[in-house]
Amino acid sequence: MLGMVKNSLLSTVEAWPYRLLSKGEKDQVSYEERTYEGGKFAAVELVGKSFDEASKEGAVKLLKYVGGSNDKGERCCLPRGAWRVFVVEACQFQDSPPCPTDESIKIEERQGMTIYSTQFGGYAKEADYVSYAAKLKAALGSDAAYHKDSYLCNGYDPPMKPYGRRNEVWFVKE
């Protein structure tokens, strides 16, 4: 238990590597344009649940997977995402990720993408993501070409981390 608390408070999260293309700010909303390479992810899709319920249930399933509930019995990756909850496989497992023991978790290959992102702190709920998505959409205006009908919600920290939390909303560039 002490180790889990120490890791939650003091450890850093391995983020999906990206290349920063540009930064912007409008109406007190800072945002970045980034490009990400493709990679392997563990994903669980939860149907018929609210965003907040799906985030919690999906996070629990994937935390078990990353904690060693897989065919290799190894800790292997770090959490991010919601609704269609997924985790990026750690760099050392990109070539051969462990197979989940929970059949609802699937390993999938995702294509690279370019995104517009804004960041915020705290324990994010659905209302926070909706609010920051609206702020980012307003800051980007009509000049930016991106998929306006959906966005990705990203959380980077373990549930027990009480401060310095990092959350992001992403719009995928067209």
UniProtKB/TrEMBL annotation:
Pfam families per UniProt: SOUL (PF04832)
Main location (coarse class): cytoplasm
InterPro entries: Reg_factor_effector_dom_sf, SOUL_heme-bd
Localisation: Cytoplasm
UniProt KW keywords: Cytoplasm
Any one GO MF annotation of this record: heme binding
Domain of life: Eukaryota
GO CC entries: cytoplasm
Family designation: Belongs to the HEBP family.
Stated role: May bind free porphyrinogens that may be present in the cell and thus facilitate removal of these potentially toxic compound. Binds with a high affinity to one molecule of heme or porphyrins. It binds metalloporphyrins, free porphyrins and N-methylprotoporphyrin with similar affinities.
Quaternary assembly: Monomer.
Protein name: Heme-binding protein 1
Organism: Nesospiza acunhae
Encoding gene (name): Hebp1_0
